[in-house]
């Protein structure tokens, strides 16, 4: 554990030095190809750095933050786009905005505050999710006697809870460091009433924002030259899902260190097709969705079934779920030893 923590420290020191170069040097170069050329070596380095980590959580989170978010944000920065433009006031803010899934909450009028739907997670909700996740880790001890479909449902719940809790923790640390309020990363995805609602307004909102800026909008503008605006939007949506699938393949590769099977890409392409179909149906047929309870169950059912079919198999074949559980329990024991036993 301590050796892996040292490796993690080295990876992020290199990342900070690289981001500092972009802040002090690349930002002085005029936007466009020249700035892009100055940033490409950093992007290549960010693709390599997670290979020095072997912990599932450290390599996975570093791949998300560096190989995905930071690289996409730096590519946008090369053309004066994205969260790094205008240039943040100091290096610390530039580093945080580049590498982490955060967005500063802007001051809002009383009417906007009254109507907004994505408030920060209440503390009691967070406490419940932490408790459920802790119980979940110990329920796995009885997975051999549980029905298969129950175990698979628990794995789906595990992925959601761990993804949200990790990003909430990172957001809280960054918010404290910067001294500002940030937008929530998740917006209760289990309350989604459509796939479009799930992917664009509830699940991993900061990653969705990066994909929108780096993939959807450029692709939509390109295809709008040749097709109708509505068709260009659909192509942009499909491109976003395809890129998301490829980036998840990268995360899987760093976690498993085996060639990709493209199952997770198929998962996102399938959801891209389903989401674009949903958009077309809403536009052309003016389809009236069923009651929220019914549509919510349909969305969660579709996400869960396709997740078990295409998202989970590669993880299960390579015992990633067991590694994830072991690492979580190891972190808990490590924290107990460092902060409770050592202080007593």
From TrEMBL:
GO MF assignments: O-acyltransferase activity
GO process terms (BP): lipid metabolic process
Transmembrane segments: 12-30, 36-56, 121-140, 152-178, 231-255, 293-312
Major site of localization recorded for this protein: membrane
InterPro entries: Wax_synthase, Wax_synthase_dom, Wax_synthase_Magnoliopsida
Name of this chain's protein: Probable long-chain-alcohol O-fatty-acyltransferase 1
Pfam families per record: MBOAT_2
The entry's keywords: Acyltransferase, Lipid metabolism, Membrane, Transferase, Transmembrane, Transmembrane helix
Membrane topology: Multi-pass membrane protein
Chloroplast among keywords: no
Stated family: Belongs to the wax synthase family.
Domain of life: Eukaryota
All copies of domain Wax synthase, residue ranges: 183-269
Keyword Acyltransferase on entry: yes
